[in-house]
Amino acid sequence: MSEESSQATSFTSAERIRQLNEIDQDVSKLIHSAGLAIQALTNAKPSTPSSEVPDGSLESHKAQFKDATQQYFALLSSIDVRLRRQVYALEEASVLAPDPVSRTGDATGAGAAGGAGAGAASNPLDISWLNSRKDTVGKDKEAELWAAARGFVEQLDKSASRQKDTTKSNSDSEMQVD
Questions:
Q1: What are the backbone dihedrals phi and psi of residue 130, each rounded to the nearest 5 degrees, phi first?
Q2: CA–CA separation, 146 vs 156, rounded Å?
Q3: Which among 123, 82, 77, 118 has a CA at the least distance from the CA of 100?
Q4: pLDDT tens figures, 73-117
Q5: Which bin fits 126, alpha (ψ -120 to 50), beta or left (φ > 0)?
Q6: What is the DSSP string of the chain?
Q7: What is the rounded distance in angstroms from the CA atom of residue 122 to the CA atom of residue 86?
Q8: Taking Cα atoms as reference points, which of 99, 98, 119 lies closest to residue 110?
Q9: Does the predicted TM-score (pTM) go above 0.90?
Q10: Taking a C-beta distance cutoff of 8 angstroms, is the pair 125, 102 a contact?
Q11: What is the pLDDT of residues 143-159, one digit of tens each?
């Protein structure tokens, strides 16, 4: 209920700028938490002191990663909600033209917009919305990594079989000498 009453009140320009500044500070926290999550996936010791002393075990790394990703997604959700409120305020002030597709946020609205070019002229946020749903880059990189891993395993298999063959031939020659 308090959220509805806060939406009904009108904010001054100074308050809006303060809110945007808070969002900006949270974006830096978001990047920091992403860095902590990536750092938890490595063997590096954390640079920031935490409540727990990391012992370098797998469980410790898992706990650090879980904490960092939870913080990341909580911040991301909070930033998203507050930025949407700012956009709605700009639409209400007639600074931005209202866009029904961005308010619904469903995939059917994007298809009705007539492609990537049609929606981009009415609202600059549409491009980022469409790009965030394009997942071919990740799939292409995954396929590339799997191919590289397959090649690496085949190379290891070949070198292991060569080593086995040379060991076998050396043992055969030793048997003949005896």
A1: -70, -40
A2: 15
A3: 123
A4: 999 999 999 988 888 888 777 776 666 655 555 444 444 444 444
A5: alpha
A6: -HHHHHHHSPPPHHHHHHHHHHHHHHHHHHHHHHHHHHHHTSSPPPSS--SSPP---HHHHHHHHHHHHHHHHHHHHHHHHHHHHHHHHHHHTTSS---HHHHH--HHHHHHTTSHHHHHTT-THHHHHHHHT--HHHHHHHHHHHHHHHHHHHHHHHHHHHHHHHHHHHHHHHHHH-
A7: 18
A8: 119
A9: no
A10: yes
A11: 899 999 999 999 988 88
Q: Percentage of the chain surpassing pLDDT 70?
A: 58
Contact in structure between 54 and 64 (CB atoms under 8 Å): yes
Which residue do the tokens 């609205």 mark? 109
What tokens does 14 get? 């100074």
d(CA 138, CA 129): 17
Which pair of tokens denotes residue 139? 């799939």
CB 40 within 8 A of CB 65: yes
Give the total residue count for the chain. 178
